[in-house]
C-alpha cells in the first residue's frame, strides 16, 4: 500500500519515490507509488497537481484505498523518481480547508448553525448552513472566526480510540468507523476530516465572507481565505480607488456619490424625454403647416436618416392626431429600411395596412398594422425612396 506522506507532514513539497504499478486507461497513465505526498481528491478538498519525473500530474485520486496519479506520458524511470507538489495550489487548499473548519465552528458556537454542505472550488469556497441568519449575525461570525486565526492556535491531527472519541466534543459525526482522524484546533474545534491543514490557525490568514444567499431553508456562505482573500482585497481596493478618483470623492463616499449620480441621471432622462416630446410637437406642427394638400387632405412624406424608430412613430401619431392628415415616413440606416404609414381617422377611404403590404415588398420587407396605422422593415435600403413614392402615389389616387 502507498505510504501517505501528507498525513505525517502536510508541508512536504518534494520527495523521491518508486513507481510500483502503472495502469493505462484512455491513453493516460494511472501511476501508483510506494509513497506519496500528493493528496488525492477527497473530503471536499481538490486533488494536488505537480510533477513526477518532470511529467505533469493532472489529477490524483483514491480507489479501494489505492492512490493513483494521472499522467499524460510515462516517466523515464521507475526507481528514485523525483516528485514535486504544486505547492502554491496545495497551500491554498490548506488555507481554505482550515478556514472552513474555523468558520463552520464559529457559526455553530455563536448561532447553533450547522454546516450541511461544503465546496472548495478553484475560485471560491462555500459552506451551506441549516438556518437563515441576519447580516449582523454573519458579520459577528466573521469577526469571531478571524480572532481564532489571530490567536494562532495549534492544529493537530489525532487518532483517538473509540473510548476517547466518545469524550471528544465533535462538531460533526465521522463518516468512517475505523482509524478516525480528528482535526483538532486547540480546544476550539474537533472535527473528523481526511484533508490537509496548516499546523497553526494563523496560517489561514484573513477569512473574508464575500456574500451569502438564502439556500434550501438555510444559507449558502461564499468566503475566501489567505491569499485568495488578499487577492480579492487588492481587486476591491483598486476598484474603489479608481471609482473614488473618477467621482472625485473619498473612498467611503463612493456609494453616496453613485446614488446621487444615478438619481440625477433619472431626472435628466425624464427632462430629456419631455423636451424631446415638445420638440416633436413643434416638428409635427411645422410639417402640418408646410404639407401639400390633396382634396383637402394633408399628405406628408419624408425619409429620416438614422433616426430612432420610436421617435418617428411619435411624430407620426402627433401629426395624424390632427384632422385630415396622412403620413408616409421612411427611416434609413446602414443595414435596414423602415416604413411607418398612418392616417387620421377622418381619412377612412384609405386602408394603411393594405398600402404598407404592397409598398414594403419594394424593400424586401415585412410588416403590418391596422387600417389607421401600419409599419414594417426590410433590407433593401436603396429602394426606400421607391417604396415611399409608391405609397404616396397610391394614397393620392385613392383620395382624389
Ligand atoms: Zn478538513
Describe the structure.
The longest helix has 36 residues, at 254-289. The chain has 9 helices and 22 strands. The chain is of the alpha+beta class and 400 residues long. The model has no long low-confidence stretch (mean pLDDT 96). A hairpin with a 2-residue loop joins strand 17 (292-294) and strand 18. It has a 7-stranded antiparallel beta sheet, with no helix packed on it. Bound molecules: zinc ion.
Q: Can you describe this structure in just a few lines?
A:
The protein is an alpha+beta fold and 400 residues long. 36% of the residues lie in helices and 30% in strands.
Task: Characterize the overall form.
Answer: elongated
**Total individual domains:** 3
Q: Strand tally, please?
A: 22
Strand order of the largest sheet: 2-9-6-7-8-4-3
What do the pLDDT scores average to?
96
Task: Name the bound molecules.
Answer: zinc ion
How far apart lie the N and C ends?
102 Å
CATH architecture of the largest domain: 2-Layer Sandwich
Q: SS-based structural class?
A: alpha+beta
Q: What is the CATH class designation of the largest domain?
A: Alpha Beta
Round the Cα radius of gyration to an integer and report it.
37 Å
Helix content: 25-40%
Keywords, separated by commas or semicolons:
400 residues; 7-stranded antiparallel β-sheet; alpha+beta; Threonyl-tRNA Synthetase, Chain A, domain 2; binds zinc ion; Diaminopimelate Epimerase, Chain A, domain 1; 3 domains; 9 helices; Elongation Factor Tu (Ef-tu), domain 3; 6-stranded mixed β-sheet; 36% helix
